[in-house]
Amino acid sequence: MIILTGTNQITFGEGTLTRQELTIFQKKNNSAVEYHYDSVDTLLFELNMRTHIMESAKALSTSGVYFADLKKSMANPAYWHITDQGRFKLNAGASPQKAIRDIFTNGSAYAFECSMAVIVILYKAILDSIDPRQFDRMNSNLLIFDWQSNSKLHLIDRIGNEEAITGDIIYFENPEVHPMLPWWKGENVVMIEEGLYYGHGHGLGITSAEVVITILNKYRLDGSTQSAFMTDRYVHPDFTFFAPFQGSDRKKHITVKIGDSIYVR
């Protein structure tokens, strides 16, 4: 359940939350796990940013970005240069926010693999959730690689995928992948909503867990007996870290009842 300033009695005024935000709130609030928040603003920021992660995943799915392994990665040279390791390094003097937006508006100039796609989605969601000037300040030397390497995302690891909700990153593992097809060893996906996930790898798009597993299973060793599966680990940004950078112009009018107190913004 959600615990806010010491109570779980939380009621939002009509129109305060979008349908998707309300769905996220209800799943966390109905959970046996306690989720503690120090303020209404922090809670609302997380609900909002999770919807931006979902929206960014959907936008990338229709952007025209290609799937490619690290050796065949492509990026718009107006904003990025690709290092020997296949990383995207922001050009000196380039605007971080414009560089991220270009991936979504000029997708055919880009190609990368599935973990890079997750990183791009998360950066776009952060950009859409905080003051863009703060985004530029925080990412002046932006380097995009895999999600294990991006400390600026302040990722939090969790165990127990039954608790995963919209905006969480989940990994599907293919333990008996054919050794000649290492790019099928697994898939990073963004949870869109209950039962739907976005995977960039191999043109998966937005689909179900069953379809992801079925596709991965096609590329196992002959005679293999262990199916691909959704791992129990999931990841999301530290929403509390980013909340103070939201910017007053992005805060909407809200009314929340917390216990016996009314909070209006």
What does this protein structure show overall?
- Keywords: Sporulation, Transferase.
- It holds the Pfam family TGL.
- This protein is α+β, with helices and mostly antiparallel strands.
- The protein contains seven helices and 16 strands.
- A six-stranded antiparallel beta sheet has the order 9-14-10-11-12-13. The protein has a three-stranded antiparallel beta sheet with strand order 2-15-16, with no helix packed on it.
- Helix 3 packs across helix 4.
- The longest helix has 22 residues.
- It starts with a strand and ends with a strand.
- The model has no long low-confidence stretch (mean pLDDT 91).
Tag the structure with descriptive keywords:
265 residues; alpha+beta; 7 helices; 16 strands
**Strands of the largest sheet, in order across it?**
9-14-10-11-12-13
DSSP E strands, number? 16
The average pLDDT value, as a whole number, equals: 91
DSSP strand (E) fraction? 15-25%
Are there runs of 5+ residues with pLDDT below 50, and where?
A: none
What's the main sheet like? 6 strands, antiparallel
